[in-house]
Batch of 2 targets.
Target 1
Amino acid sequence: MDGSGARRLAQIDIALWSEKAAAHLLERVGFGGTPGVIRRLAAMTPEQAVDHVLQGASDDDLPDFEESGFWDPSLTHFPPSRPAATELAERTGAAMGVRVKPGGNRPLQPVTNRFFCWLRATTLETRRLSYWWLGWMLQTRHPLREKMALFWHGHFATSEEKLRDYCKIRQQIDLLRNGALSSFRELLTAVSKDSAMLVFLDAAQNVKGAPNENFGREVMELFTMGVGQYSEHDIGEAARAFTGWTNDDLAFRFDSAKHDAGEKSFLGRTGAFDGDDILRIILEHDQTAAYVASKIWRFFAGTAISPDLARDLGTLLRDCDYEITPFLRALFLSRVFHSKAVVGTHIKSPVELIVSTYRKLGLRMMPGVPDPHSVGQTLGQILLYPPTVAGWGEGRAWITPGLLFERGNFAREAMFPDMIGFTDPNLDPGSKVRRVNRNTNAGMEITAATLEEGAAPSSAAGIQETFNTRYASLMGWQEAMRRLKPTPRAPAQFSLSELVIEDGAATAAEAVDALAERFLQVPLDATTRDALVAMLADEWGSDSLTEAESYMEYGLRLVAHGIMCAPQYQLA
Amino acid sequence: MVRTPGLTRADHEALIQAGFGGMVLEGAGGIAASPVWSKVTGQAAGERILVIVELSGGNDGLNTVIPHADDACYVARPRLGIHKSNLLGIDDHFGFQRTMTGFEKLWKDGKMAIVHGVGYDQPSFSHFSSMAFLQTGAPNSGEAHGWLGRLADVIDPLGHNANPLINIDDHQSLAVTAMNHVPLVFDDPDRFTRRIYATLIRGWMGHQGTAAILNDDFTPLPVFDRAA
């Protein structure tokens, strides 16, 4: 590193290390801290504190994900569509382990039911997987690992929607979590050869003589170098090199018959390159370290990054040979990471908002009310379902007038879980399926039960269908819901009263200030703070906490809701 | 919808005055009936609104409005080309793909105009770059503001009109990003409301706490500008 680089990544002055600095560190390396944790970290030196968050502590007591048990080997090579499934069954007599009926009505019905059951089951099981991961983020003693895995999930963005297989997305997330803090070099190769990515970016369609450029393009544009650092010709040559890469269910397989072994010219180099060679050449390129380092910076520090800083971070990542832990160590200890331009300026993503809110409330279990998947959907970030391979937007992309309202609405549901109004989205198949369900429960025959709303019964007279799709959808939903392990629908269990008493508050003003101190990195403006104090005293019917002690919780939750509606609460 | 049982008529009026129209929607009357709309756009009856519909994903333009009189089309597309006999004719040169009967009707009623060949030289094959270029209308320029954003900036540089840019989606499009305007962005007008208990509203309102939420034209607080 040259002189200016050394200065820019100079370490934070130990004199500036404080509870504020420790709180800032905890907000960024994980999902925020509670006063006790902040104090412990502040009592260490900066190096000890950073080493502590880098290493974390054991999570041996946290439960592994328990499958509902939907998958079995007959679901390998799941047909790409319902017509493909029924045609396969007609041709061969069976599909997905289910035979065509030799006689009777609708001989293909069991096969069709099986098709729809898997579609529903994998979607519901993926939601359970995301609930489990959120729960881990909430309770983990190594939050940096989960935060970094969240980064990689947005970086190597893969959506279960296209995979139609919770097993594959689970394998990928495990890969990202286990390797989160190790080596980008190893992670890049592992993710590129993992079945989720191979399916998501069409590896099997990329064959000798008919290359598919999807992976070749995105691996450079999004995962390593950024747009403009290579030519269209490079993309084509990379695609040729990746031919033959495919998967056998969850395992990587190299099909040499499909591989184009010819000479290629890629980024100025020539040779009979294969996929591993392409990744190696990409990693040797200066731009790769700069692009990845900058992206990590923007995720942990902030969206503003000067060209000098980008260059220095790239040099740092390269000097660490793409090892994430030493890179992050230097980043978290740097003066610039703790500078005014960075502290309190990061807009929390929806996942950060949800998990940090619950962590600061001291929860031991991820609430099922409100439903976290639904909250993520409303706020614009659904875990395991990134909108595109480019992942999610950053910073201000999380905030629109509508989304700001919805963040406040989430806060209200967290403070005042609506048990009466809650309906389980995992048990909601939509109105069309509900109608068919009502009809069949009322004893209607299948054809009549599944007619379009308003259609005359005679329009279906005499039809001899080999299967009924709407009925299959109903049967699929019921079967999937019956076998799905239930998501616990307990709301958050917490007491703001205990928190403010612990903080020594004796008046409404002190209670408001205590809550603001716990939840905010950026202080409220005086007007808002005073309004909340007046509102609380009004609600308590007294300014004194002691007088209101037996009923003070409700008023405190109103204050917390108010705080969480504030723009300041969106900042970490 | 938000129910605000504890409010008097006077409270109600005062809330709307203070800019909380979005909180006191009553009934699910949809866009036209929503007080949010009449408040935020200041729209008089009969004023025109330009509606832009952005469709995501790829579309094969040459098989949407087909230049059937141009042989080059069929030379380039021996298998994909749609022939004159298999489309809805517009004129001697062009025709619609045959399922586009709705568009054909609009065309015949004189309510449709078509702009041919929209694009730019040496188009980027990066999906994300291309989208960005079409949303800014300024390819390869580093332009940070969208074409609609720049339009609003030109028409109304000082921001006299409340909310000239409305973006209905779950995230803000680059197309409406402007220098002098903050676009109003939301996904569902019925959900574009803060769910809040009466006590909190009264508390805020009674103590001039309007600054705590949003400015009355829904621009974020200054704290966001500092953070940007």
Target 2
Amino acid sequence: MSSPVTSELEPATAGHVSEYLFERGWSDGLPLVPATEESVQAFLVHTSRDEDEIVARLPQLDREATVRDLAVHAVMAGCRPEYFPVVLAAWDALSAERSALGGGWQSTSGPAPFVIVNGPIRAELGINSTGGVLGPGFRPNATIPRAIGLTVRNSFRVIPHALEQATQGLPGRWTMLIGEDEEHSPWEPLSVDGGLPAGADSVTATLVRTCEFVDNRHFSDPEEVLRDFADTLSRSGSWIFRHSSAAIVLNPDHARVFAEAGMDKQDVREWIVGHASKTEAELAAVGKGLSGQLPDGPFAPDHVHPVFADARPANLPIIVAGSRNAAMSMVVRIFSTWSGRSFPIR
Amino acid sequence: MSGGIIDPTKSRSTVTAAGTDASRPEQLRDLRVGLLENGKRNAAQVLDAVGHVLAERHGTGPLVPLIKKQFAMPLPDDLVDELLAGCDVVVIGVGDCGSCSASAVADGIRLEQAGLPAAVICTDAFETTSQAMAELKGDQAYPFILTEHPIANLTGEQIAQRAGGLAERVAERLLVGRPASEAA
Amino acid sequence: MVVGHEPGGDGRVSEASAVDGLDPVASALVTEYLYDQGWSDGLPLVPATEESVKTFLAHTDRDPDEIVARLPQLGRTATVRDVATHAVMAGCRPEYLPLVLTAWDALSAEPSVLGGGWQSTSGPAPLVIVNGPIRSGLGINSRGGVLGPGFRPNATVPRALGLTVRNSFGIVPHKLEQATQGIPGRWTICIGEDEENSPWEPLSVDGGLRPGADAVSAMLVRTCEFVDNRHFADPIEVLRDFADTIQRAGPWIFRHSSVAIVLNPEHAQLFADAGLDKQDVREWIATHAGKTEAELAAVGKGLSHLAEGPFEPDHFHPVLADASPASLPIVVAGSRNAAMSMVVRIFSTWSGRSFPLR
């Protein structure tokens, strides 16, 4: 949509419409754009999919959302029409996540959909993959995940303090969409780990809990950085079951250091999986010993419990993103696990 | 008109002033060289190394190391006075973080306006924010010197190597003023 | 006049009833105009007009020209009127304005804010904590999903801060804002303390105000890190779990750092039942959370370069400089439905001061 002739603008009307949309209870707390037949049509022309195709469902609530419903929420979230195929692909990806179908939207953990975009579409839509990639300021990064949240709210009717039972929730629950900085990554993109050809426009999504920064700028040896990641990954606070999964949003500067040391992504994964752990005694000290929980227990106090079940990308996806202006990376706690699949944008 | 929509960026209190450089000396021989470091890791070491190369190659006078304690903030007035009284030229740096890089440029512009030739060094990862500060200060063409990021984990030997190249660009900036080449 | 679509309802879209004075097409044009000006954080804005700003200003006694926010290094300031403009644009209701203004009072007392926080590579977020009866007056969430989305004051008040940083200070990502990766929810973190389910005095009392006062505390923070501990048998186990997260090496940059805890009411009650008050909790954690020199050196973060160094490999470095509320503020919030709390990394440190709502 191009800029209108400014004499046509009616800010008072816009204020009233915004207030009306709040009053209807459709908002996540922020201003919405009204959806109309015309604006929804403008979005639907960006896909060849049947507008009545069901893309998202929540069987336990007997709720579903069609292509058309997703377009309504994309409009309301503030998306531009050309973002719509990414919204659709994000739902394709989320619909393959057991955690999203298994009650994630209602969970006390209040997990967020974490959406990663690969391919040339990043530049076409202006998706941020560099400085402040997890933060605010970029329209596609901000509005596409918001469209997901509005669908959960209005199509599934999962609303806080009612069907949504987040205990504390997460800051930025409906804001986590990033591009991978493929141009500054020494490795193949995440979508290749997810089973697609390199260079494909694609979306990967999983549910996540908190992001935990690892600020390591003064290293003299890549192994120091790996130990720093392992230290964060093995903290007990996030320990609930025997194993857990985590993503790393890896700073390009950290990625470069690993690559220069001859490591590929899988080497990094294997190192971390081999080193991130706690002993039975350490877990028991925080009330999380696994001896009584598991059929193969009890365990000796010095028994080592690795955080990860294995070193597959599904358990430890690595995405290169962020500015190289300071060597900080982010450990992102996956709620349950990632399916390991990426989805083409179509 | 835009139907009366307020432009939120037009704060009534915004002040900008067009920047001009101080007049340049003909040579650096015997001049007192201020080394204004910002307390960031390796900043003092880099400036000190640059200062020694300047002494070696250009016969500069005494090096006057000074520290800006709050790296993100404008220079305190007493520090400006100290610089003006104690130095003939000043090297500022190293801007290697989000706020301190922009701030180093602001300091350079302020000192130039006060009559002290200044050379500002920032790391290349902060080029855009340094440039944004120059624009915000109304001096879009303000020349600052970029060096490869990062510097915090350079060894002493690497710092000495880096200083060799930097010193020439610092000398050029201090002597020629504009148009200095904005090295990449 | 068509107003829009009912977005819910059995996966189908039905037309809402027409309401006079609502023109969604005109409204969407305004939204797009506001995006085109570069004023948005990425999400739709409400346009500010003289009229709407005046409606907001009616909720404060302050002079519209009073300067409430400043950034000396950029030569930028924001007046009460500028802040009201951004509150309108963020989607606030007029009665939220005193909260936004007081949040700026609080942020203006934080050395980290004046010291370059908005431009920092860390990309820190303002964490705004509200105490007092104003929470229920404005409908501020302090319980389930307190850190998450869904509540207008919690969502729009911190957004107004972010828009002021963007437009009044001119700090825009990839330019003067230099966040390396940033943090999710940077302009979304405003919480009420759940005073009703806390066994202790509210944070605002630690911040120097009398109990029951409407108050705002604010600090800059980096990431939130959950501590999920539901099956404890003993409060010390939970304290150890907090210490384990607080002492992780990843955030270690300087000798000491500060953290806040958004404490689940169930964890708070557990501590209180064991006879611990907030200060006892702080002291336990301040004493126990730390790493040895050898552990830090293994990740490239040994502290032997400090003036007091070098240190023996088994020298214990505590995370916190002391057990003051400024180094470890504790806020009780969240639902009692699962015993999860949040460790929140403070960027630099908190001033330790709360500010009366005005």
